[in-house]
Amino acid sequence: MANQEGDHYISYLDQQGKYRGLLAWLLSTDHKRIGLMYFYVIATFFFIAVSLGLLMRTELIAPGETIMSPQTYNGLFTVHGIIMIFIIVIPGLSVVFGNFFLPILIGAKDVAFPKLNLLSFYLFLLGAIMAVLSQFLGDGPPDTGWSFYVPYSVESSTNVIFALTAAFILGFSSILTGINFIVTIHRMRAPGMTFMRMPLFPWSIYATAWIQVLATPIIGITLLMVVAERAFSIGFFDPALGGDPILFQHLFWIYSHPAVYIMILPAMGVVTEIFPTFSQKPVFGYTAIAISSLTIAFIGYFVWGHHMFTSGTSYFSRLFFSLLTFLVAVPSAIKVFNWVATMYGGSIDLKPPLLYAVGFIFLFMIGGLTGLIQGALATNIQVHDTAFVVAHFHYIIFGGMGFAAFAGIHYWYPKMFGKMYNIRFANIAWVVIFTGFNLFYFPQLVIGMQGMPRRYFDYLPQFKTGQVLSTIGSYILVTGLLMMLINLLATRKKGKTAPANPWKGVTLEWQIPSPPPLENFDIIPEIKRRPYFFGESKNEK
Amino acid sequence: MSDHAVHSEHYDREAGKLGMWIFLFTELFLFGGLFLVYAVFRATYSADFHEAASELNTFIGTLNTVFLLTSSMTVAMSITAIQKNNRTLAFMLILITLILAGLFMVDKYIEWSHEFAYKVYPGSEVLKNMPRGELLFFGLYFMMTGLHALHVFIGMILLTINLVKVKKGIIHRENYLLLENSGLYWHLVDLIWIFLFPLLYLVS
């Protein structure tokens, strides 16, 4: 292909356009630059939210008030939740790697609507800044939890409206990104790239984008209704005025359950790119993985009621939602089997991206199986609103989506920046993160099962061992995260130059130089076969 | 951008339309949330909804329906006019659409101020003393028509931009995607009103 290594070209990082310096980034409509801007913003917020989490863990190191008041603790878990959910994990992988690699993987020069893409970014930035400002304006940080449950979110004297508006704007940004990616995939695939020849990360982005488009408006209108409820006491969710708080829970989870698939589907897509490359073997069950993404998106839309098993919904509806919840586990399991089968018999190269991807499978399976415990009606009553749920959720979202994000960063870092990080150091950081993670969250599964409620700033003495272990785990985890961060930052400054294809990958991003030139491809490639072809003989088509 | 590597904006009319259609779906879902809430409360308080709806002025509602339906026709005609390369006619038709939209808003203003005069607005004492179902009906009425009016307003801004661009000749026979998409948006505004009108004014 054209533009091989050694040829003279200007990378997107060095490109000089109409604007200079910082403006060349802030006003760029290049999907790669926008992807990187998202990356920096999200990484910054991630470390803010991690610090908040660390403060909460420190508070829980001993029973009673340790370093903060209960009200501060309520504010902390709300802000931790809002930042982590709405700013990091919902947009996360889709806006960073989706923006950067979706066009490259389908052989396009950019997304379908580059200007809209930049608008999405600025809406995102506005929403993110508002979410942070809501902590300082008005009467203290919101203390409702990220789920804004009524009636408390209507009664709380804290600055809830501002946080609601922030979430609304972030949702709008998410919708626009979703539209952009759907249209990009429909209209901009390289010649010859049929849907069934598309790599699997774009497939997962495609499924995600549909959820973003079809579910996000519901949370938008719901948040507006809560705003109206607070501002004008319109009565929809207030029993005193004839309304129904359970209605809010339905509307909220109609979006927020599919939202967890917005979080996890791109993560699955990232690791699906990694397994074939580091096994040097075509992905096992291409069609099954592609279709299971769509199945997850579809069934995931109809399971929201499982968040409300203890809210007094009817027996029949609980039965229905429980059944669907078990069903949605099937396509996820299909993916896990396919990943493992992809590695089977391959020539495995245990580099950091694969380590994180394998860690992903391990943690995701713990998260998924504990999810089924909650999906079953009888056991749900025991674990509802306990630390068990917190642990389950973090196993899925941090262990799943988070580890996939780290896998993606280590996989694509040489491509994005043209520099290679210190692999040994990255491996050590992985060990520390993996150990810390499990020490952090596994005890919470146990104390949750024993009855430790979630969102409590205090606890009974019998939970002390679990809580202390958990806090120690959190310190180890953060140490590992910092090691990873330092490694990557050091690489950015003085890393060795990375070759165009350090991992011997076969998808399109590895066929262009690192870092990619402004328009990705000199000549748009023509696709003649399915992806992940590692080729026994070169002339076989 | 630079001399050699110009970052090409990608023009694809089909893409533009596809994107717009998906966006319209999200708008439908946005209102869908309110329709869902309406359905729940209508089922719970059907007698109260019946009472409350009879207090709305059906004449004003009908007049607004006529305004919007006609404007939907004129905006569709303006697109045909552009396709036939008749820019003057297209200009006039968009202008008529805008005037009809303006009339809708004036009508809406009269209706709302009439209700405000009777101290019927969200959170008012009068409303709080009403039966619960009527209070919720008016809550829904103000929220739904308010959100709809906001969409009419956004549509008017879009149409104004189109008006200027048609006048300047930026929108012409070869390039009228913006007008087409604005037209689609305007039809959506119309479509939602067609559901709002019977649900709010005619259920009595």
SSE topology sketch:
The complex is a heterodimer of chains A (541) and B (204).
Chain A lengths: L20 H6 L4 H29 L10 H20 L2 H14 L8 H20 L18 H4 L4 H28 L12 H33 L12 H35 L6 H15 L14 H29 L8 H24 L1 H7 L3 H31 L1 E2 L2 H28 L13 H31 L1 E2 L44
Antiparallel strand pairs in A: 1-2
Chain B lengths: L12 H32 L1 H9 L3 H26 L3 H31 L7 H4 L3 H37 L8 H25 L3
Helix pairs in contact in B: 1-2, 1-6, 1-7, 2-6, 3-4, 3-7, 4-6, 6-7
Q: CA-to-CA gap between the ends of chain B? A: 61 Å
List the uncertain runs of chain B: 1-10
Helicity of chain A, as a percent range: 55-70%
Assign a percent range to the helix content of chain B: over 70%
- Overall mean pLDDT score of chain B? 91
Beta-strand residue fraction of chain B: under 5%
Assigned CATH class of chain A: Mainly Alpha
Structural class of chain A, by secondary structure, is mainly alpha
Strand order of the largest sheet of chain A: 1-2
What's the shape of chain A? globular
Relative strand content of chain A: under 5%
Determine Rg of chain B (CA atoms, Å): 20 Å
Please indicate the count of domains of chain A: 1
Q: What Rg of chain A, in angstroms, do the CA atoms define?
A: 23 Å
Architecture (CATH level 2) name of chain A? Up-down Bundle
Helix and strand element order of chain A: HHHHHHHHHHHHHHEHHE
CATH topology of chain B: Four Helix Bundle (Hemerythrin (Met), subunit A)
Kindly give the count of domains of chain B.
1
Report mean pLDDT of chain A, rounded to a whole number: 92
